[in-house]
Design goal:
The protein is globular, with a radius of gyration of 22 Å. Helix content is 41%, strand content 10%. It has 2 domains: 232 residues, P-loop containing nucleotide triphosphate hydrolases (Rossmann fold, 3-Layer(aba) Sandwich); 89 residues, Orthogonal Bundle (Conserved Hypothetical Protein Ylqf, Chain: A, domain 2), CATH 1.10.1580.10. By secondary structure, the protein is α/β, with parallel strands linked by helices. Helix 6 crosses helix 7. The chain contains 13 helices and 6 strands. Helix 2 links the parallel strand 1 and strand 2. The chain has a 6-stranded mixed sheet with strand order 3-2-1-4-6-5, covered by helices on one side.
Length: 367
């Protein structure tokens, strides 16, 4: 009898929220800075291209031209025809990049420079950008590489250009919006690096598990065995032959218990009484896919591209997500602070001393 992968993932009780105080502060800061910003770089993880969309960004930066950056292309098998369909109707530009690659950074800088010269007149104080995205999608790494390439006259990554953005393997390394960072002198291109911002709650367990597998939440935030079970589920949908875990077991399986037992046996860590550290085996296996140890561990963790959802389905789901988030308290706070249009210029908003200071700064910026 041929193997049939699960079409529905089991219902697990897992946390659906990882929204922190500095996420709210960052959103408020985005709106305050919006009048100064000419261009947006929005970074998404190419292994979870839908789950790493944060619809809250459209509340505060909806009217800004942007370039979508799909990071970690070296770890992903996302197909360009699918993303072409996703972005074509929305008239969005996008790129696949490795945030550490100087070649990819050159391509990004060239697109930004094109934008600068399209502006009439060019901004006298330089083109100002904001780099946004969910936690741990590679924003700060990208800032460092862009700056290294942009400020090195030879065009090569230079160790002489000091890193200005802290990076790390876990989310939350960047916790405050940076002061302006120069990326290029010719022309002047400047950027604000920002903390990754999570949604107040994600819509379902599958979304949180996809975000967990790409590192948007801390490793310990979701039970590792549940993470491993979701990974098994999503890999079987992509390849029901079992080839993606064949180094541990010689046949496909829907049972995470069976797979983890086989991993323990392969690693020779089964105890004399036949038991083994199930969580430890789950962490070991999942970490291989998170880190992309070799070409074998390239993957997709979002259901939408795996199931090849069409453009209409995705648009409908994103509209539903926007409507869901619009009813949340965080959206009300943004409206109170930044106005209905989210630009911090609307008069119908509650203003405090910080807001008035930001208004004054924006007014001076336009002089």
């Amino acid at each position: 009898m041929s193997f049939v992968p699960r079409r529905v993932f089991p219902t697990y009780r897992i946390p659906l929220s990882n929204f922190k105080g500095h996420h709210q502060k960052a959103l408020n800061k985005f709106g305050s800075l919006a009048p100064q910003i000419d261009f947006i770089l929005e970074v998404r993880d190419s292994r979870a291209p839908i789950s790493t969309i944060n619809v809250l960004f459209n509340k505060v930066l909806a009217h800004k031209p942007r370039l979508i950056i799909y990071s970690k292309k070296d770890l992903s098998v996302l197909k360009r025809p699918w993303t072409d369909k996703l972005h074509k109707s929305r008239n969005e530009q996008y790129m696949f990049v490795d945030a550490r690659s100087k070649q990819d950074s050159k391509k990004i800088l060239n697109k930004i420079k094109d934008r600068y010269f399209e502006m009439s007149p060019p901004p006298p104080l330089g083109l100002r950008m904001m780099l946004i995205g969910m936690p741990n999608v590679g924003k700060s790494t990208l800032v460092n590489t862009l700056r290294s390439v942009g400020l090195d006259s030879s065009g090569a990554v230079s160790s002489k250009v000091r890193k200005v953005a802290r990076t790390g393997g876990q989310p939350g390394v960047t916790r405050a919006t940076s002061e302006i960072i120069k990326l290029s002198n010719d022309p002047d291109i400047l950027v604000h690096d920002t903390p990754g911002v999570f949604l107040p709650t994600v819509k379902d367990a599958e979304t949180m598990l996809a975000l967990s597998l790409v590192g948007c939440v801390h490793t310990s935030f979701v039970d590792p065995v549940i993470q491993a079970d979701y990974l098994l589920y999503i890999l079987n949908l992509q390849d029901p032959s079992g080839a993606k875990y064949s180094e541990y077991i010689d046949h496909p399986t829907n049972s995470i218990d069976e797979l983890l037992q086989s991993i323990a046996e392969t690693r020779n860590v089964v105890r004399k009484d036949g038991t083994f550290d199930m969580e430890g085996m789950a962490i070991h296996w999942v970490s291989k896919w998170k880190q992309g140890k070799s070409d074998k561990y390239k993957g997709l963790f979002d259901l939408a591209p795996v199931l090849e959802q069409n453009e209409e389905e995705i648009r409908s789901n994103l509209n539903s997500e926007t409507n869901r988030v619009a009813t949340m308290q965080v959206t009300k706070k943004l409206t109170d602070r930044l106005g209905e249009d989210g630009t911090a210029t609307s008069k119908a908003r509650r203003r405090n001393a910080k807001d008035r200071a930001a208004d004054h700064q924006n007014q001076l910026f336009k002089l």
